[in-house]
Amino acid sequence: MRFLVRVAVNAVAVGVACWLLADIWLRGGSDTERLLRLLLVAVVFGLVNAVVRPVVKFLSFPFIILTLGLLIFVINALMLMLTGWLSGQIGLGFHVDGFGTALLGALIITVVTWGLELVLPDKRR
User: Fold this and answer.
1) Which of 33, 47, 81, 101 could bond to 23 as cystine, CB 3.0-4.6 Å?
2) φ and ψ at 67, to 5 degrees?
3) How many domains does the chain have?
4) Integer Cα distance of 8 and 53 in angstroms
5) Which H or E element spans position 95?
6) Looking at the DSSP assignment, which residues form a beta bridge with residue 22?
7) What pTM does this model have?
8) Within a domain: residue 120?
């Protein structure tokens, strides 16, 4: 159940980024098709954040300390760009155009995810 909630939260966050930024877009015909693609992109985004991001953060830990944590924003942007590239490879039609857009999109996704996790109940507590 927690996995489905995480996918839904990621889907909403990515959807908000697509809505706010013209250079992050999701191709699709009908609303249903776009929703399904958005859910699949959220799964890809979750997998990238679960598998690749910890490795990158571990390897760049000294630089994260050196930059007082600001490198985390760059890592988040790179994970969003990787999600866009992987989604393009498997035909989901999600695209992030440029690093600056990815940086702003990652910031939007982080804020939306944080806000939704504050509102949603956590059964682990």
Assistant:
1) 101
2) -95, 10
3) 1
4) 20
5) strand 94-96
6) none
7) 0.90
8) no
Q: Is the pLDDT of residue 125 over 60?
A: no
Sign of CA dihedral 60, 61, 67, 72: positive
CA 102 to CA 84: how far, in whole Å?
10
Residue type, 112: V
- Parent domain of 24: 2-114
Residue 102 has which token pair?
């990815």
DSSP string, 29-87: SSHHHHHHHHHHHHHHHHHHHHHHHHHHHHHTHHHHHHTTTTHHHHHHHHHHHHHHHHH
> How do residues 35-45 score in pLDDT, each as one tens digit?
999 999 999 99
